[in-house]
Each structure stands twice: as C-alpha cells, then as structure tokens.
Design a protein that fits this description.
- The chain contains one helix and 22 strands.
- A hairpin with a 5-residue loop joins strand 17 and strand 18 (about 235-240).
- The longest helix has 15 residues, at about 5-15.
- It is mostly beta strands.
C-alpha cells in the first residue's frame, strides 16, 4: 500500500466534506461541481482530521510521531496536543483522531502502541484503553478493548466510540464513561477475512465513520469495498470491488459522511475521492491518477 496516497486522500476526503455544493446531482452522474475553499500548511504528513463543535480542527500526523496539530479558525492560531505522559511514553503513530460531542474529549488511536488515548480539549492526557503495557507501548491483543494496529476512530452523537481494529480484522464499539473506566466493548464482524462475499466480514478495515442516524460505514480496505451497518451492528449493505471504474476501489483508506448522509471515500490507490448517496449509489468524484 502506498501510505502517502492514503493519508493525503484521508485529509482531503474529510476537508472536502465541508466544501461540496450542488448536492442535487442524481446518483450515477458526475455533474457535481466542487469549490476549492482553502488549505492548511502548518502540518507534517497528515493522515486524519476531526472537527469539534467549536470548529477547531485536530490533525493526526503519524509518520514522524508528531503532536496532534490543533487549528482554531476563530483566532487563526495553531496549538498542539503533545501526546506524552512520561509513563507509557511518546505517542507512536497517531493515525486516527475524533472529537466526542458527549464528553467533549479528544480520542486518538495509536497504531504502533495498539492503544486508544483520550485527551481533554486543553491537551491534558486523561485515559488510555489498551492491553497490559509492555515497556512504553501496549501489547496487541484480541480481547474486547484490546487492539492490533488500529488505524481509525469515529464517535457518534451519543458518545459511542468505534475503532477500526485493523490487524484484528474487526470494528470495536465502546460505550460508557471513559473517565470512570466503565467502558464496555463489543465487536461486530463474522466469517473469515478471506471470504469477501460474507456479510460483515472485514479484511484490514482502514477507516470507520458514523452518520447522524447512527449507521456505521466501514472502509473494508483489504476487500476494496464499503460496508454499512445499523447502530446495533446489523449488516445493511455493501458496495464496491477492485478496479478503477465508478464505484470501484483500490485500497480505500478513509471515509466520511456529511449531514445529508452522503458518503465520501478516499479511493487511495486510484488517486481520487468518490461520493455516494446513503444507499451506496455513485454520485461523483474528485481527482484522478
């Protein structure tokens, strides 16, 4: 996988969610127009971005173990979450970042440390979720609340947390109070990752997103498809296959959903962003090889 293509795709996929217009285009057409708004230069090899209720941007930069960059458009200023606690050590590969609207905390998944870290809005480290620490990292694990190279995190309006537990070929959902250590985790997946026709089966899922109705969308990267579930993890539909045509993918590495339920996929290997309606019907694209 070309990781540079993936993280650039993820960044622009989510930024352009806020930049799309002319949403009346019909499924299967590419007549939408896209308006360039802005770009941010104070970042270093970005992979993921999240926005809080105040409009601040949180940008994950995994490749140099960089801090989470925070941009406040109200002031035009940049700050950082330094992601270091002196006990479990330096942040290692922070691939995914998400703001929790319920507890007003920032959630970060670290691929190489196999953990989920939680910070307050001022950057104070408040909690960790992982297997028993080994040295300054967390061990990989397959139990509930344990991870193996997680790549993404998403949070719904009720505060439920979804982690793309990539090398365990599953999505984990956590509910509860993270500060009270009362989080309960459950997994939704079934079948074998080598059987892409099985509903709810993942092969190296690289990203996860949740819409306003609580439906869950998974970028099933290894199977080059998107899968959709309801809020209880019940399989609803899927679309896509390997290729470079409309609705086809090559290592989809990022996914986002707008307020109207439109789905944006970072089709990384094909150097483009594809847009679909909530049922998976192709709407349009940006970019090309």
């Amino acid at each position: 996988m070309n990781y540079r293509k993936v993280f650039l795709g993820v960044l622009f996929a989510i930024i352009f969610v806020f930049c799309f217009h002319n949403a009346s285009a019909q499924p299967g057409t590419s007549s939408e127009s896209y308006k360039y708004v802005s770009r941010y230069q104070n970042v270093n090899l970005p992979w993921d971005v999240s926005v809080d209720t105040f409009g601040r941007l949180y940008i994950a930069q995994p490749f140099l173990n960089s801090p989470i960059q925070v941009y406040d458009p109200a002031t035009g200023k940049w700050t950082t979450i330094k992601v270091f606690d002196g006990v479990l050590g330096q942040n290692s590969s922070p691939y995914g970042v998400a703001f929790n609207p319920k507890d007003k905390l920032i959630y970060v998944v670290e691929k190489n440390n196999n953990r989920l870290r939680v910070y307050s809005l001022d950057g104070t480290h408040v909690a960790d979720v992982c297997a028993i620490a080994s040295g300054w990292t967390c061990a990989s694990g397959t139990d509930a609340g344990q991870f193996n190279h997680p790549l993404d995190v998403a949070i719904d309006s009720n505060g439920s947390v979804y982690v793309a537990d990539t090398d365990n070929n599953r999505i984990q959902k956590g509910q509860g109070d993270i500060l009270e250590q009362s989080f309960v985790w459950k997994t939704f997946t079934q079948g074998s990752p080598d059987s892409p026709d099985s509903k709810g089966t993942f092969k190296s899922p690289g990203a996860v997103a949740v819409d306003s109705q609580g439906n869950i969308y998974v970028a099933d990267s290894g199977n080059n498809q998107i899968q959709k579930f309801d809020k209880d993890g019940v399989f609803l539909t899927k679309w896509g296959k390997t290729g470079d045509g409309q609705g086809q993918f090559s290592s989809p590495g990022g996914i986002a959903v707008d307020n109207a339920g439109n789905v944006y996929v970072s089709d990384s290997g094909n150097h483009r962003i594809q847009k679909f309606n909530p049922d998976g019907q192709y709407v349009g694209k940006m970019g090309q090889r």
